[in-house]
Design brief:
CATH topology of the largest domain: Rossmann fold
Radius of gyration: 21 Å
Shape: elongated
Distance between the termini: 31 Å
Strand content: 5-15%
CATH superfamily of the largest domain: NAD(P)-binding Rossmann-like Domain
Number of strands: 8
CATH architecture of the largest domain: 3-Layer(aba) Sandwich
Mean pLDDT: 96
Oligomer: single chain
Number of helices: 11
Structural class: alpha/beta
Helix content: 40-55%
CATH class of the largest domain: Alpha Beta
Low-confidence stretches: none
Order of helices and strands: EHEEHEHEHEEHEHHHHHH
Number of domains: 2
Largest sheet: 8 strands, mixed
Length: 259
């Protein structure tokens, strides 16, 4: 496919890289072209011309900030009739996108930064069907895993998986610091923490076990793990994570209403 990524910022650049590596022809746009020049190493054409990119493309990914969506679609909307428009802008609903780009086939999606390593979770909402959905899932499969959800869940997806890499990074940083505190060399603490997270996630994915089951496998009576778990429970780690997701979801809903 010929794909334009309008807005090659952090997520947009990651999307452009993944799509190019999947074999699509990709043009990415950014006002400050020099900041996205690294994409040329992956076969992506970089330009500051949104109009030319949208005219050329069969599929357009909109990866600009939510408060820029109206402005950008006002600029390129006439080039989108009959084309697939995939918006990655948080808080912008399908109905609003359809009004701004009449005649386009609209999808609202929320990937996360793990697109960079093709391990994103991407949720999407659309009223398209048939071959359009097959095309959408083919495109998203180059990012990692994807799933269709009702649009009412998109703010919660933003709060959970969209923001999720930041929560995980905080927890991993704490694990690394914990390793340093008990005397591990810095690189050992880093690799041990990362591999532990990766291994646990893979174990849960491949066995389809509940996290509590894996926790119980590790805990032994009077052993080391139960003392660590006691401290985590006293620190209300689970409550803090749930509150973080709740807060991010509420903020997404507030921004949606403003926009």
């Amino acid at each position: 496919m010929k794909v334009a990524v309008i807005g090659a910022g952090t997520i947009g650049s990651a999307v452009a890289k993944a799509l190019s590596e999947a074999g699509h022809e990709v043009v990415a746009t950014r006002r400050k072209v020099e900041k996205a020049k690294w994409l040329e190493e992956y076969g992506v054409e970089v330009t500051d011309d949104n109009i030319r990119a949208s005219e050329w493309a069969e599929v357009v990914f909109l990866a600009v900030k939510p408060n820029k969506v109206s402005q950008v679609l006002g600029e390129i909307g006439r080039n989108l009739k009959g084309k697939l428009l995939v918006s990655l802008a948080a808080g912008i609903g399908l109905d609003h996108l359809k009004r701004l780009a009449p005649g386009s086939r609209v999808v609202r999606a929320m990937p996360n930064i793990a697109v960079l390593v093709k391990e994103s979770f991407t949720a999407y909402s659309t009223d398209l069907n048939g071959k359009d959905v097959e095309l959408v899932e083919t495109l998203f499969s180059s990012f990692g895993k994807c799933i269709h959800v009702e649009e009412e869940h998109m703010d919660a997806i933003t709060g959970l998986s969209g923001s999720g890499p930041a929560y995980v990074a905080v927890f991993l940083e704490a694990m690394i610091y914990g390793g340093l505190r008990v005397g591990l060399p810095r690189e050992v603490a880093r690799i041990a923490s990362l591999q532990t997270l990766l291994g646990t996630a893979k174990l849960l994915m491949e066995t389809d076990k509940h996290p509590a089951e894996v926790r119980e496998w590790v805990i032994t009576p009077g052993g080391t793990t139960i003392d660590g778990i006691f401290e985590l429970e006293e620190g209300r780690v689970r409550t803090a994570v749930m509150k973080a997701i709740d807060a991010a979801t509420k903020k997404s809903r507030i921004l949606s209403k403003r926009l």
